[in-house]
Amino acid sequence: MSNRQPENESSASNREYKETRAKLTYRWDRIRGIGAGINEAVVGTFILYIAIKVYEAPNASKAFLMSAGSIGMLMTPIFLWFATRLNVFCNRACAFYTAFTAFTLTVTLFTNNLETYLICAMIALFLSPQGAVMMMQIYAKNYESGERGRRLSSFQMISHASVILTVYFCGKALDADLAYYKWVLFCSVLGFALASLSYSRMPSDRLSMPAGHRPWHNFSLLWKDKTFGLLLVIWLTIEMGNFMTMPIRMEYLVNSQYGINLSGTQAGMLLKSIPLILSFITVKFWGAFFDRFNYIKTRLLASCCMAVSIGLFFASESLTWLIISSVLFGIAEGGGRLVASLWITKVAPNDKVANYLSVYTAASGIRGIIAPFSGYALLSATSPQVVGVAAIAIIAIASLFLAFKSKGFEQRDH
Question: Which long-range contacts (CB under 8 A, 24 or more apart) does 101-109 make?
Fold first, then answer.
């Protein structure tokens, strides 16, 4: 009897400790969602828009710009290794990388030169993925397995609302006068600063590494854990189809040579606001679907919606059909983003999530480097419609293979 009481007290204390960590993480992650939404709107949409409209950058420069974030993803093992080598707390590493991103973007406010703008913007894009990678380690440590989808969906709802508002107001500013583009970039500086503050307030553990660990050591997981390796290839192939169309969508809407020539607000609404409204509406469904079923079914359903949306987008110049395609794209993004953020937590041991995620993120970087160059190369030789058809074919082939192998993969759903 006397032995059981301390055990019960210890168990209650441990449970209370975990609940406190989860509550603090949940609170500050929702605040981070505001900054993340601002950054997604500016970095994900208006960085390229400014390059096209303000600086009239050539296709090669735009391809390099769009690949910078992916190069940063490819280099995440280096950044993770550096942070673990210093044995810093995970949240502090996230906060530092994000704050430095804000500083780099600040430099773009003081230049009118294309080369300087491209270099500064590319550095900011290069640095921006680093905090998000290690955030998965915080999720894995602070949230229970069955609640991650629900809690992350709340973050996504807030970030989506932030994107919608940012796209609208920044788009209106650019439509009124392109000279306001520096105020648009300043919004992203504030967004990264808020994200950095939020990271710094989240509870986390120190990052650690085994003796003899090297930056690219985690890539051995690709052949040591063959299920993970095969899943990774399938995942990246599906994403390749989607990502090669991303910069081409903006070109299709705002470049006068394709005949549509929409304003900044209209392009932002079609590429960000409408998809995110639908993603906002459906993300709770996707979170519940993810928790109740599994990541394979969630990925397949999202991929089907994605392929249909791409087909509709490039098949017509009608604003009505472009809106419908954006609606479907938003539904697909709600599921795709959720799965992309959490599928690693289903296949990796809880104490190895950051290691597995660094491999996925670095491999995604390779995909992201290839995708914009492939899209622009195909666009230069053919048309936006051919790019769309190629993307649909890639998504369909990878999805069919995923469905065929699904039973074996579902055994790793924990």
Answer: 101/127, 101/128, 101/130, 101/131, 101/192, 102/189, 102/190, 102/192, 102/193, 102/196, 105/185, 105/188, 105/189, 105/192, 106/189, 108/182, 108/185, 109/182, 109/185, 109/186, 109/189
Cβ contacts of residue 297 below 8 Å, gap of 6+?
Answer: 289, 406
Q: Which range scores top for mean pLDDT: 19-23, 291-295, 302-306?
A: 302-306
pTM over 0.85: no
Residues 361 and 76 sit within 8 Å (Cβ to Cβ): yes
Count the neighbouring beta carbons within 10 Å of the beta carbon of residue 359.
24
- CA 234, distance to chain mean position in Å, is 18
The pLDDT-based confidence of 2 (bands split at 50, 70, 90) is low
Separation CA 106–CA 121 (nearest Å): 10
Angstrom distance (rounded) from CA 108 to CA 119: 9
CA distance 377 to 381: 6
Name the residue ranges covered by the structural domains of the chain: 7-207+214-410
**Torsion sign (Cα): 180, 183, 188, 191:** negative
* Nearby residues of 313 by Cβ (< 8 Å), 6 or more positions away: 245, 249, 252, 322, 325, 326, 329, 388
In CATH, 7-207+214-410 is 1.20.1250.20:
yes
Q: What stretch of H or E contains 247?
A: helix 246-254
What is the structure's pLDDT at 12?
65
pLDDT digits (tens, 9 = 90+) for 63-99: 888 888 888 877 777 777 778 778 788 888 889 888 9
Q: Which of 36, 263, 27 is nearest to 166 (CA)?
A: 36
- Please give the backbone phi and psi of residue 383, each rounded to the nearest 5 degrees, phi first: -155, 165
